[in-house]
Amino acid sequence: MSIQFKTIKELSSMLRSKEISNHELTKETFNLIESYKHLNAFITLNKERALIKASELDKNSSELSLSGIPIAQKDLFVTKDLRTTCGSNMLSNFIPPYSATVIENLEAAGCISIGKTNMDEFAMGSSNETSFYGNVLNPWGQNLVPGGSSGGSAAAVAAGIVSAATGTDTGGSIRQPASLCGITGIKPTYGRISRWGMVAFASSLDQAGPMARTAEDCAILMNEMCSHDPKDTTSLDEDVPDFTKGIDAPIKGLKIGIVKEFDLSKLDSNVVKVFEDSKKHYESLGVEFVEVSLPNINLSVPTYYVVAPAECSSNLSRFDGVRYGNRCDDPKDLEDLYIRSRSEGFGDEVKRRILIGSYVLSAGFYDAYYKKAQQVRRLIKNDFDNAFEKVDLIMSPTTRGAAFEAGSMSDPIEMYLEDLFTVPANLAGLPGISIPNGHVDNKPLGLQLIANSLQESLLFNVAHNFQMTTDWHLKTPSLEAK
Ligand code: GLN
Questions:
Q1: Ligand 1: residues whose CB is within 6 Å?
Q2: Is residue 317 among the annotated active site residues?
Q3: CB 3.0-4.6 Å disulfide test: which of 10, 98, 105, 327 passes with 6?
Q4: Domains in the chain, please, with CATH?
Q5: What residues form DSSP beta bridges with 467?
């Protein structure tokens, strides 16, 4: 029997009814990884340990919510005794002595960590082309990017290899690849999920989240991923609700805001049509649309590309060839050791960000750039606060368009604009979900819904209502095994 393209819910019921054993499911998952190796979705596999855990579950069955479910882990989460590269040459030999809280939580819920997924180097990118381990291909096309930075996770789910994967989202890295690969992904409220054991990129923006085929599966994963973690000082000490509860409640009477300042007329007319069709669909479910103004929202991309590089330049200073990471051969002296270890270890995009970050934090430019960006960030948050007095949610396309060809976007600024619709939620710390809502030229597109802080349950409810009444999330690419 095939396990490809199955959801967590479906796989769990196959396991419970003994239609398949845990060992067979895990083994078959590795077969699928092998069949779709050309997608380059994985950097490191966890085969031996995964099969042992699966066999143990066959001997001692468990009632845990993710029991026996193979999950692909983004290679940004540290995993005890399993190589964690973060997509970089800098960490190509790094074997962590402990696991991230997210990994511990998911494994404690019975899941089987199948391997580490490919990603943009240190999560910097929107196309998965900055990975030291080569780019990832989108299962929906010959030479299409899967989006980034969680592109390996998105491609593995979209190809039906796994039902679920972990991702992280600093400026869109869960939602944008979810959109381009036709799957569902949510960035929770900042602090909802512990950042302990996530390799830091921009600490005030980084947030982990689930990627799966359906909103319901994402809710099942979130139930396990969230926890208050004293090891992360920004972890929220909030009750974790059962995110699946009330997921199918009707949404009649809900008010959704459409952002006046997002000029959709600049997008391809087919992309706009997909968005308008989704609006009509929600209207048929009883939703009312209201225009809202977020006057500063178009400053989000420039603001993000000051704040994120600033934090990255500081966070990545730990990779010096002494404490962590690549060390060059035969250094002449300490300075040579630093310079060559970092020059060899980091790729171009990471170096670009470190340079920008060091510049905007430097004594002469701090006030003009970094401080200003932080002030604008506050204005953007205020805009959202005002909007949420009028509406329950805010809706937009997730991306400006569908997946593009690998190698076709050489201008970094163009690439940064890929994040136009996703970065505002990170700057404001708000939860946002992307769900598949249509196709253009046989390539998937995503719809983004943003909620007020801690309102993930509402996002799941609204997304699930869409998925109960449409079938975009059920579409699968026609893939050839190579
Ligand atoms: N594309 C954005 C960037 O390159 C976002 C990345 C992310 O969310 N990790 O910074």
A1: 123-126, 149, 169-173, 201, 308, 419
A2: no
A3: 10
A4: 8-250+454-474 (3.90.1300.10)
A5: none
From the list 53, 74, 116, 443, the catalytic residue is 74
HSE of 196, CA atoms in CB hemisphere, 13 A:
21
| Residue 349 CA, closest ligand 1 atom number | 4
Taking Cα atoms as reference points, which of 113, 104, 39 lies closest to residue 75?
113
Angle of the 215-225 helix axis to the 456-469 helix axis, nearest 10: 150
Active site residue 74: yes
Task: Please name which of 148, 156, 129, 150 lies closest in space to residue 38, comparing C-alpha atoms.
Answer: 156
pTM score: 0.98
What are the phi and psi torsion angles at 180 (to 5°)? -70, -20
Instruction: Choose which residue among 131, 149, 198, 204 to substitute to test ligand 1 binding: the one with the highest number of ligand atoms within 8 A of its C-beta.
Output: 149
Per-residue model confidence as pLDDT tens for the chain (482 residues): 699 999 999 999 999 999 999 999 999 999 999 999 999 999 999 999 999 999 999 999 889 999 999 999 999 999 999 999 999 999 999 999 999 999 999 999 999 999 999 999 999 999 999 999 999 999 999 899 999 999 999 999 999 999 999 999 999 999 999 999 999 999 999 999 999 999 999 999 999 999 999 999 999 999 999 999 999 999 999 999 999 999 999 999 999 999 999 999 999 999 999 999 999 999 999 999 999 999 999 999 999 999 999 999 999 999 999 987 899 999 999 999 999 999 999 999 999 999 999 999 999 999 999 999 999 999 999 999 999 999 999 999 999 999 999 999 989 898 999 999 999 999 999 999 999 999 999 999 999 999 999 999 999 999 999 999 999 999 999 987 77
Token pair for residue 254? 């809900």
